[in-house]
Amino acid sequence: xxxxxxxxxxxxxxxxxxxxxxxxxxxxxxxxxxxxxxxxxxxxxxxxxxxxxxxxxxxxxxxxxxxxxxxxxxxxxxxxxxxxxxxxxxxxxxxxxxxxxxxxxxxxxxxxxxxxxxxxxxxxxxxxxxxxxxxxxxxxxxxxxxxxxxxxxxxxxxxxxxxxxxxxxxxxxxxxxxxxxxxxxxxxxxxxxxxxxxxxxxxxxxxxxxxxx
Length: 213
Prior knowledge:
A hairpin with a 7-residue loop joins strand 3 and strand 4. With 213 residues, the chain is of the alpha+beta class. The protein has helices at residues 22-30, 64-76, 126-133, 143-184, 193-198, and strands spanning 2-7, 14-19, 36-41, 49-52, 87-93, 97-98, 109-110, 117-121, 137-139. It is 37% helix and 19% strand. The chain contains five helices and nine strands, in the order ββαββαββββαβαα. Strands 8-5-3-4-2-1-9 form a seven-stranded antiparallel β-sheet. It is elongated and about 100 Å long.
């Protein structure tokens, strides 16, 4: 089971989802999207919170209000963290999560520590949690199928971009060839037999030079 939330502090509303337990977290780790940002209470047990960003948005540019929503939801979904003040929440792109066979169920590491950020949650804000809980929906998604469908879309987009790039490269190459041909043949007409004859003094009449006197 996965819990889905919406943050209406941004337009369009942001999509946040949470695994029910550590078993579900394993599936979320495995089938996350490139657009996902992972949140977790720092050095405390907590749910894995995921924010799905709009395509093209950088994880380092998450709006402050939306970031606060995700941090509050993370704190609220930590048994120990929910009771404390001044809880740090770490977040990083899903693609930066590292998982190997030596790790316990639901446990992750980071590929690059430099891509991990922290936000301090001073205290629980009930107004925020209540607002988010009103949007809560429980679903049983096929995460593998969703991931495969997403990858199909991504591959189609990449293919379209590659085709457009190829057409543009061909257009530029053709344009350069035409310019080179024009440059190499700029004087062709000047040196044709007819042009040379027209500019030659041969065959001029005896009075030709009188025109210049």
